[in-house]
Every structure is written in structure tokens, then in C-alpha cells.
Amino acid sequence: MKLIRQGAEAKLFETVFDGKNALSKQRTRKEYRCEQLDSSIRGKRTTREAKMLSKARALGIKTPIVFDIDNE
């Protein structure tokens, strides 16, 4: 995987998924937060983002396709 961008919340990597070019977004752990709270926040944000992308796509808005979600 090749790092493309890094922001405050996540790192974006160029990768291959199931034989297709893809992007992988990895949310980074915040050391200043309790591990349990941080894991919960990152998991909820990831799930919420995927749902919003899916709903927008269903309305005809061009969005990235979500192939997989791994909250680990």
C-alpha cells in the first residue's frame, strides 16, 4: 500500500482490493483518548461515513463505492 494523504483523522492509501485499484482509509488512534472510547468513536465514524456514502449513491450522487468495512 502506498500512502497518498494523511490528515488529522485518517491516512489514505492506494491499494488493490479483489483485483481492482482501490483506496483504503485507516482512521488513526488518538493517544490522548481512553482506548475504549477512541475505538468506539472511530468505529461509529467509519460506519456512519459508509452509510452516508451509500445513501448518497442511492440518490444518484457520484460517490466512491465502499467495498468493505473493517472496524478493527
Per-chain topology:
Elements: E1 2-6, E2 10-17, E3 20-27, H1 35-58
Antiparallel strand pairs: 1-2, 2-3
In DSSP terms (H or I, runs of 4 or more residues), the helix count works out at 1
Q: Span from first to last CA?
A: 18 Å
User: Helix/strand-derived class?
Assistant: alpha+beta
**Series of secondary-structure elements, N-terminal to C-terminal:** EEEH
Helix content: 25-40%
Please provide the count of β strands: 3
Which descriptor suits the 3D outline?
A: globular
Low-pLDDT windows of residues: none
Can you list the strand order of the major beta sheet? 1-2-3
Summarize it.
The chain has one helix at residues 35-58, and strands spanning 2-6, 10-17, 20-27.
Describe this structure in words.
This protein is of the alpha+beta class and 72 residues long. Helices cover 33% and strands 29% of the residues. It contains one helix and three strands. It has one helix spanning 35-58; strands at 2-6, 10-17, 20-27. It has a three-stranded antiparallel sheet, with no helix packed on it. A hairpin with a 3-residue loop joins strand 1 and strand 2.
What distinguishing features does this structure have?
single chain, 72 residues, alpha+beta, three-stranded antiparallel sheet, 1 helix
